[in-house]
Amino acid sequence: MATAGGHHRAVCVFLSSSEHIAPRYHQLAAELGAEICARGMRLVSGGGGISTMGELARSVRAHGGHTTGVIPQQLLDWEVGDTDSDELIVTRDMRERKARMDANSDAFLALPGGLGTLEELLEVWVGRTLGMHLKPVVVLDPWGDFHDLRTLVDGLLDRQMVRQQAADDVQWTTTIPEALDAIDAAWLAGEGRGALLDGSAGRPEEWLEAD
């Protein structure tokens, strides 16, 4: 999807870098890459060239799309970087990496992954809850890998440690079309990079619940 100025919007995808996962996760990443291109989106990722992270980036490029990878120097030194990326941004550390991924993205999409994926998802979720960005946050979970996370959040809702509005800041999907439709709908509603905010401090009533 292009903006009014003709620039293609970018979706930042969080996903696994494990080389020990089932083939279905690789297939999901490859299919997502094709659909990202079909919708005229650009890809921002963690800049890895292995596992599903690499699968996704290669699929995007194979279908004529543009990839931006953001990777810390240490991981690049370990030779796990996507050196074929159209744009490879090398950062000092993980904190800078996430900041650069955020700055270059109009939406966030999490696929099944490990602790790094969870950490990235939770950070952008909290950022939206606090009003620090107004970009869609979507989870694509075809096989229920995030079931326990959803159960945890539901329990926190029951105990009033999380407000319903904060829980609703993530959209849960099970298919690629559903996930990208949710992102497209949010963009059409005015969300995305540069959409924020009126200078307010977000939603102060959420600070403790999001902490």
Structural summary, described in words:
The protein has one domain (10-192): Rossmann fold, CATH 3.40.50.450. It contains 9 helices and 7 strands, in the order βαβαβαβαβαβααβαα. It has helices at residues 23-38, 51-62, 73-77, 94-103, 115-129, 147-158, 164-167, 176-188, 207-210; strands at 10-14, 42-45, 67-72, 87-91, 107-110, 137-140, 171-173. α1 runs parallel beside α2. The chain starts with 9 loop residues before the first strand and ends with a helix. The mean pLDDT is 91.
Features:
7-stranded parallel β-sheet; 211 residues; Rossmann fold; 7 strands; globular; alpha/beta; single chain
Task: Count up the domains.
Answer: 1
* SS content category: alpha/beta
Strand content: 5-15%
- Within the largest sheet, what's the order of strands? 4-3-2-1-5-6-7
| Unreliable stretches | none
CATH topology: Rossmann fold
**Overall outline:** globular
The helix tally amounts to 9
CATH class: Alpha Beta
* CATH architecture heading: 3-Layer(aba) Sandwich
Radius of gyration: 16 Å
For the termini, the CA-CA separation is 33 Å
Helix content: 40-55%
Largest sheet: 7 strands, parallel
Number of strands: 7
